[in-house]
Amino acid sequence: MRLVALWSVFSVAAAFLAATAQAENTVPAADSYKKAAQADVQFLQTRLGELAQKQAAGENLLQGHIKPALGVALLLAAYGDALGDSTLKGEALKIIEAINAKKFQDANALAKNLTVKPGQPGKLDALPKPLQPDAMLEAAMNPYRLSKVGGLNIEKDIRDMIKGNNPLKIEPTAVEVLAIRTAVLSAYAFHYPNPEAQKTPADKKQWEKWSLESMELSHQLAAEAAKGSTADEMKMKKLLTSINNTCNQCHEKYRD
Ligand code: HEC
Description:
This protein is an all-alpha fold. The chain folds into two domains: about 25-115 and about 130-145, no CATH class; about 155-255, Cytochrome c/b562 (Four Helix Bundle (Hemerythrin (Met), subunit A)), CATH 1.20.120. It has ten helices and no strands. The chain has helices spanning about 1-25, 30-55, 65-85, 85-100, 105-110, 135-140, 155-160, 170-190, 200-225, 235-255. Helix 2 packs antiparallel against helix 3 (about 65-85), helix 3 (about 65-85) packs across helix 6 (about 135-140) and helix 8 runs antiparallel to helix 9 (about 200-225). The termini are far apart. Mean pLDDT is about 90; it is low at about 1-25. Heme C (HEC) binds near residues 155 and 250.
């Protein structure tokens, strides 16, 4: 009797430890955030340079070019928290304000001075809310768009890496950055169910579940990809497939 009781206490403790260890494992390394931050600073500098130039020349500015810039600035603001880089966060928020005011010269000047200087790594839990709620969801989804229409090509890259015929190579360096972006975009999306997903409490729960799943799978993907040349390709492919499923499920129910 006693032995059984002792054993069950032990196995509960073991399960708890295993769960905690797993939870810790799936938090991306600060270095992964740093790589994503560097890539996104580069994207934002290029994009805002182009927008500033077009605005100065009196050319028409496309929403498909503006909104991904907002989304990427949101990413940088969140990375600022994850990296303990409050300057990065503050400057990214100023850039969002300038983009919103259509002041692309100002946004461009601010972006040129962006730097990534990690401090004491922190948590992502209090994401900034610099835009109206409906604009937040749009900004969080826009980086997923094709690069030929101004996005970061994330959706297509995911689909190309998991397709059966002539798939895109699963390159850990690229996947690490993709996974961090997807994790943080999903974390933002969690907070902004669209009107369809606000019809009933069950809808809101479903929305949150898919966002959270997408975020957690992306954390696992970032952790695997961060192993570099020893990363498990099959595992990454499985995770990419599961992430793609959460995107599709949510779109089918709430977007289309
Ligand atoms: C929890 C629900 C949900 C999840 C998860 C989700 N999306 Fe979306 N997505 C939406 C909704 C709703 C819209 C429409 C937003 C709007 O009205 O602007 C959207 C829009 C988009 C758009 C179009 C953006 C535009 O304005 O042209 C793309 C591309 C996209 N999502 C890609 C993805 C990818 C890739 C994933 C997974 C990594 C994903 N989404 C995960 C709900 C979701």
